[in-house]
Design brief:
With about 220 residues, the protein is an all-alpha fold. It contains ten helices and no strands. The longest helix is centred in the first third of the chain and has 25 residues. The protein is elongated, with a radius of gyration of 25 Å. The chain starts with a helix and ends in a 23-residue tail after the last helix. The relative contact order is 0.10. The C terminus is likely disordered.
């Protein structure tokens, strides 16, 4: 029995590995369960033994490589008396960019999650994950707002969405440009400047210096 369980787990891992490779190469919508089974050297029945459908397979890939920065954001939300929420958002954002740059598995996961089509069968679950991530950012932005740290001319919702767009855009351009720039260095600096722009100014700008009173030049008679 013990050997049978080990074999079953080995088959499950092979299916996840095969799905990861095919999703990354072809995209989610263009990959079928039959192709995954063939790539894994398994039967279609074996797939249905371990997974309900393609979404279930995608969930297993995501759970395997879920970025650790999300756990840090969740912990920060549950510790309301901790550090500056904008500092946390900046640090985790920079760390995530560095992780994407250096970790092939994380790059593949990011590409897979973006490869789905709006109407494919995994779309509802992918949208749930997207909303969960944006929700984490929004909660910390809202706390920053409540603490008077977020600039008054932007809402927590806008700030969270802007950060997501910036990070995803940076990764997308980095990939499109053949990784011709450092995502962690250049992207990290751009994210830091963005976060600085979200912060409440420490003090009002100093007024312009007053012009010296006009004094006519005295000339000799």
């Amino acid at each position: 029995m013990r050997r049978s369980k080990a074999d079953a787990e080995q088959t499950r891992l092979k299916i996840i590995d095969a799905a990861e490779a095919l999703f990354c190469a072809r995209g989610i919508a263009q990959t079928t369960l039959e192709q995954i089974a063939r790539e894994a050297g398994a039967t279609r029945g074996a797939i249905y033994w371990h997974f309900k459908d393609k979404t279930d397979v995608l969930k297993a890939i995501y759970d395997r490589y879920k970025p650790p920065q999300l756990a840090r954001l969740e912990a920060a939300i549950n510790a309301p008396d901790g550090e500056d929420p904008l500092d946390i958002l900046e640090a985790t954002g920079v760390e995530f960019l560095a992780l994407i740059e250096t970790n092939e598995r994380q790059r593949r996961l990011h590409l897979i999650m973006l490869s789905g089509l709006p109407n494919d069968e995994t779309a509802p679950w992918r949208e749930t994950i997207n909303c969960e991530i944006q929700g984490l950012l929004r909660k910390l932005m809202l706390r920053a707002q409540e603490e008077g740290r977020l600039a008054p001319d932007i809402s927590a919702e806008e700030a969270a969405l802007s950060q997501m767009v910036l990070i995803n855009g940076l990764i997308g351009e980095w990939q499109r440009a053949g990784r011709s720039f450092s995502l962690s260095l250049m992207g990290g600096r751009m994210l830091q400047r963005f976060m600085a722009a979200l912060r409440t100014p420490l003090r009002a700008p100093l007024p312009a210096p007053l012009a010296a009173p006009f004094s006519p030049v005295q000339t000799a008679d």
